[in-house]
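Narrative of activities, Objective 1.

The group set out to show that a structural description can be obtained from nothing but a protein's sequence at a throughput compatible with the screening campaign. Below is one input-output pair from the validation batch, recorded exactly as produced.
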Amino acid sequence: MSVLTLLTDFGTQDGFIGVMKGVIWEICPTVQISDISHQIQPQNVRQASITLSRVFPYFGDGTVHVAVVDPGVGTRRRAIAAQIGTQFCVAPDNGLLTLSLQRAKDKHLPLKIVSLDNADYWLHDITSTFHGRDIFAPVGAHLAAGVPLEKTGKIINDPILLEFPKAEKTDDGWAAKITLIDHFGNLRTNLLAADIDDKVSIRVLGKDIEKISASYGHHTIGDLVSVIDSGGYLEIAVVNGSAEKRLKAKVGDIVRVINNG
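Output recorded for this entry:
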């Protein structure tokens, strides 16, 4: 039995996700559908790219990921699909797949990308505002049903890629940036734990944190802490609270890591 995931900025109020699932099950009735998230901030392609890349390693061979955050819907932007290792992704060609494609490069995984130009695998009537239903869902369903990737379109090698800033080495440590603010108000940075020395302090938006802690529970409610998140990145948090609200933080703000060794 195949697995197909959905990741969108559609929310759950208006029935868009239900319609996509109906399209998918009409084509591939046995597929299991996993909802990754439908609460991506509207039009936030970068957030979608980060979210997809975080879940990608935890799904098995043959999984099809349909990701639709598509501010360019109805324009000349391409629709694409990719085979990354043993999994597949279907998405608009707007940079959403950047981090998943980068992972393939870093891990030396097999990679193949097509432009979805074979309308045989779309719905018959295509609107200019809902390609999630009309193109991405049916193509994802056909892939889940075993249709070869190459049948859905022509091979390309020039997908749109976004630039994601990397943490910068400084004389006394690192200058990282907040890349994601999660549901709890935790601030994820672009600095990997593997690059951090054992003895460091953190400075973020005028506040100092003495060290990186093992977990939130090692502190009391309301403490501002730094931890390594489940993806291996430095994170700033408030225990049982919101670091976003406490610090008035936003994506792109600097987090300084200072070596004390």
